Amino acid sequence: MANVNAPFGLKPIENINGGLPHLVPCKKDASANIIYRYAPVIMSADGNIDPATDATVPVYGVSVDYGATATAETLMIAPAFNHVFEVQCNTSATIGQTNCGNNASLVFTAGSTSTKLSKAQIIASSIATTNNIVRIQRIIDRPDNTTGSFSKVAVVFNLHRWPSGAGQVGI
Length: 171
What we know:
There is one protein chain. By secondary structure, the chain is an all-beta fold. It is built from no helices and twelve strands. The protein has a five-stranded antiparallel beta sheet, with no helix packed on it.
């Protein structure tokens, strides 16, 4: 069965030690743009979170909540440094087992106003051994996902705002 092209952002699926995701509360101020569910976020100079828009800026984490525009609120975040995230690749490029261990960039497309989900995806053409924002760990093993077009993969962040977040070269 072919994979469905339905981006959903970066969904935290486990702690890097295999346990359940650990979430932390973070403040979003009223001046921040919409933060969609499963969207990468950055820490701004004022200590609040904002949606990530640039794959070269260290990510603080991924929001598991939706945060509306012009609303100050607390959102729960899966920190970028110790979680594995599920994410879809953005094109019909064939993604397979040989891509595991390589790095990739993300595209930060505006989220869905109907589902409130992020549309962040891996840029399939960016998969390489060079330093980049995420590292592919594995292809998601599930009946609704196969290697090939619009594959869902498990990734960890190379570029994040937590200790030792300088990024790494792929294998």
